[in-house]
Design brief:
Blueprint: H1 2-20, H2 48-75, H3 81-107, H4 111-123, H5 127-167, H6 173-193, H7 196-200, H8 205-210, H9 216-244
Helix pairs in contact: 1-5, 1-9, 2-3, 2-4, 2-5, 3-4, 3-5, 5-6, 5-9, 6-9
Length: 252
């Protein structure tokens, strides 16, 4: 069982990528209840130089976050090629728009034009509200799918181990029941994660502007996928321990 134990440990680590899922360093600030002075809801108009400074600072926060996300995408082993390409294109397009706005804002002399350009940083790009959260969702979904496949391989090996234990006269009733439950959790987790990329990759800033909760369903689906795969991982450990336990000799 040592070889099985080694493989099972590796699978548990793989699922850990889904279960723990720490926030990326480029996640950016959480939304607060304070309105930004460059948003369309700002009640007061700042003087032109103060507004320009604040808008340039907003771009300067977003560009490094986008660059960091792009670097992480390039190194991620779990993303499918088409998802990586779509996310990279989205980041590149957003970056290019912000760089253009940066130049325009620096040269704006008309207050109304400056306000429009400043507003575009947010309403036409939505870096922290949409672009980066969408990236995390797709990464999380592809990681969950990869982990589901890995733990599915472990389930197959556990099934072989159960068959051998049964052939040797062991009572494997509980192990079989746990394996069935494990397979069901894997299937449920993969099914929850699978549709996420397709549901978010086509979203635009206008979609988020019209519905601030547009990412809520995929977030819930990803949480469900992680939960299911966590249960599958725990069941794998339970089955391993059941098979390792010494056989109980019949009393005479």
């Amino acid at each position: 069982m040592n070889r099985l134990r080694t493989r099972l440990t590796a699978a548990a680590l793989g699922v850990g990528l889904v279960v723990v899922a720490p926030a990326a360093a480029w996640a950016g600030p959480r939304r607060s209840g304070t309105a930004t002075p460059t948003s369309s809801s700002a009640p007061a108009r700042l003087d032109i130089e103060t507004l320009r400074t604040k808008c340039l600072a907003a771009i300067d926060v977003r560009l490094p976050a986008l660059a960091a996300a792009k670097t992480d995408l390039a190194a991620n082993p779990h993303l499918s090629a088409d998802h990586k390409a779509a996310l990279t294109a989205d980041i590149d397009g957003t970056t290019a728009r912000l760089q253009t706005l940066h130049g325009e804002i620096k040269s704006d002399t008309d207050p109304a034009t400056l306000r429009d350009h400043c507003r575009s940083i947010f309403e036409d790009n939505r870096v922290f509200a949409l672009v980066l959260p969408r990236t995390r969702l797709v990464v999380g979904a592809d990681t969950a799918t990869a982990a589901g496949a890995e733990v599915g391989d472990i389930a197959a090996k556990l099934a072989d181990a159960i068959d051998k234990a049964e052939a040797a006269g062991r009572d494997v009733t509980q192990a079989k029941a746990d394996l069935d439950a494990m397979k069901a959790q894997i299937a449920s987790g993969v099914a929850a994660a699978g549709p996420i990329p397709g549901s978010v990759l086509g979203l635009t800033p206008a979609d988020w502007n019209g519905n601030h909760d547009v990412l809520t369903p995929p977030r819930q689906e990803l949480r469900a996928a992680r939960s299911d795969l966590r249960v599958a991982r725990d069941l794998a450990v339970k089955i391993r321990n059941e098979l390792k336990a010494p056989a109980v000799s019949p009393q005479t």
